[in-house]
Design a protein that fits this description.
With 469 residues, this protein is an alpha/beta fold. Helices cover 67% and strands 10% of the residues. Strand 5 and strand 6 form a beta hairpin. Helix 3 runs antiparallel to helix 6 and helix 3 runs antiparallel to helix 7.
């Protein structure tokens, strides 16, 4: 009885365990994972290129999720992508492409961000309701994708390319282009021979030009040496000018010192003159009472000779002599200040500085006359002018050669045009082949004539040099 119960319990427990294992297996196959932190979002494609559920999703080349659902629609296909970790933040502006790779053409989704996220966006949780969809792709968002590398597009491009190469018109154009290229190569070889002849003549002209340039260089070197000597002389002259300027500065300083040192004396002299003038005015004003006193004295003498005021007359005369002595002393002070030895020495120094300045100016003028009157310097300048004249003539000859080269280019164009016209004519008979050759030769005749016109004329013989029969 107990064993039966144990058997029945074991069967029931086994059934429950099997049922639980089956349910877990079904949930696992459907992608149910209760402990994982995943999020999903939808991507719209115009064409998924054979994409299937369970395909790999890669972010920067690393597998980060898979495709869990594909829903076709009228205007496109929606693919639901599941990212395996909520810690992976995908920028909103990332490029989402459906690419085919491998031998079997397996389609995967590649997510490539175009720029890095800011530091304040690294803390966003894509599963949160506060997720900022403007910065990152959040849970249940919808974005647009595009087709990347596809074998179907590659096959279509190969088919279009094969059709293009298989077109008879395109093949005929390629053949015609090859023939024209061969004819053009022949014309170019002929033109190369003519250009080689032209280059030889130009090389000879350049040799003459180099000789003229060497002579001009030698003359320029000599002129540079003379200019260096002249520069040294000018430097010496400038030094003399600087010395002269220093002496002038000393002269100005001496004049300033003279004015500064004699300023007190001049002020005292002016004060003395002012006092003297005041004393003279007082003296003149004092003469009028004296005259009046003399008149009264004469009257008194006339009235009474015995009562003459001799004492008052003597006092007035004494005052007059005192005033005259004071005026003479003031005049003596003025003449002493003007005849001071210090002032005479300062004036003598001023005259010496002016004399030295004029002597330096005379030396500078003599140096300039010596520089401009040097015959060797004038001959060097003359040689420099002659060298520049030969240089100008050589440049004119080079311009003529350049004009010849520019004229050869239209001749080459005419040759190519004639050859292309001859190549386009249908090749039917031997007689028809000879006609283009004749046309080509006829078209080349003006070219040789033009080339002969471009070449320099042959030197004419003097009538005396022609042999007589």
């Amino acid at each position: 009885m107990r064993s039966r119960t144990i058997r029945e319990g074991s069967v029931g427990l086994l059934i429950l365990v099997g049922l639980a294992a089956f349910i877990w297996l079904v949930l696992w196959l459907r992608g149910f994972s209760p402990g994982s932190r995943t999020y999903r979002f939808s991507v719209s494609f115009t064409d998924i290129a054979g994409m299937k559920t369970g395909a790999t999703v890669r972010y920067r080349g690393v597998d980060v999720g898979k495709i869990v659902e594909i829903t076709p629609g009228t205007n496109g296909v929606n693919a639901v992508i599941e990212i395996g970790s909520a810690d992976l933040l995908i920028p909103r502006n990332a490029v989402i492409e459906a690419n085919q790779s491998g031998l079997v053409g397996e389609t995967t989704i590649d997510i490539t961000p175009t720029r890095q996220l800011p530091k304040d966006a690294l803390s966003i949780n894509p599963q949160s309701s506060r997720c900022n969809s403007q910065l990152v792709i959040c849970d249940q968002d919808r974005v647009n994708g595009q087709i990347g590398v596809s074998f179907v597009e590659l096959l279509r491009s190969g088919t279009r390319l094969a059709q293009l190469y298989g077109d008879p018109a395109f093949f005929n154009n390629v053949n015609a282009l090859t023939k024209n290229a061969s004819v053009a190569a022949i014309g170019v070889s002929q033109l190369t021979g003519e250009l080689s002849l032209l280059s030889r003549s130009v090389r000879q002209e350049v040799g003459g030009f180099s000789t003229a340039a060497n002579s001009v260089t030698a003359a320029a070197n000599q002129t540079a040496v003379q200019a260096g000597i002249a520069a040294n002389r000018i430097a010496n002259t400038a030094d003399q000018y600087s010395l002269t300027a220093a002496q002038l500065n000393q002269l100005v300083a001496s004049a300033n010192d003279l004015v500064t040192s004699n300023r007190g004396n001049l002020v005292e002299t002016l004060d003395s003159v002012r006092q003297t003038s005041e004393q003279l005015r007082l003296l003149v004003s004092g003469f009028s009472p004296t005259i009046a006193q003399l008149n009264s004295t004469v009257g008194q003498v006339n009235s009474s000779v015995g009562r003459a005021n001799v004492g008052v007359l003597l006092g007035n005369l004494e005052t007059l002599s005192t005033n005259a002595a004071t005026a003479s002393a003031n005049l003596r002070d003025i003449s002493t200040a003007l005849n001071s030895p210090t002032n005479i020495l300062v004036l003598q120094q001023t005259l010496d500085s002016a004399r030295a300045t004029f002597e330096n100016a005379q030396k500078i003028t003599a140096d300039l006359d010596e520089l401009t009157g040097d015959p060797e310097f004038r001959s060097n300048v003359k040689r420099l002018v002659d060298g520049l004249g030969s240089l100008v003539s050589s440049a004119q000859q080079l311009e003529n050669q350049v004009q010849v080269a520019q004229t050869v280019e239209p001749v080459r164009a005419e040759i190519l045009t004639a050859v292309s016209r001859a190549a386009r004519q249908p090749v039917t008979t031997q007689a028809s082949q000879s006609k283009p050759q004749q046309a080509t030769s006829l078209s080349q005749l003006p070219t040789h004539r033009q080339t002969s016109k471009l070449l320099p004329p042959a030197p004419k013989k003097h009538p005396a040099e022609t042999p007589t029969k």
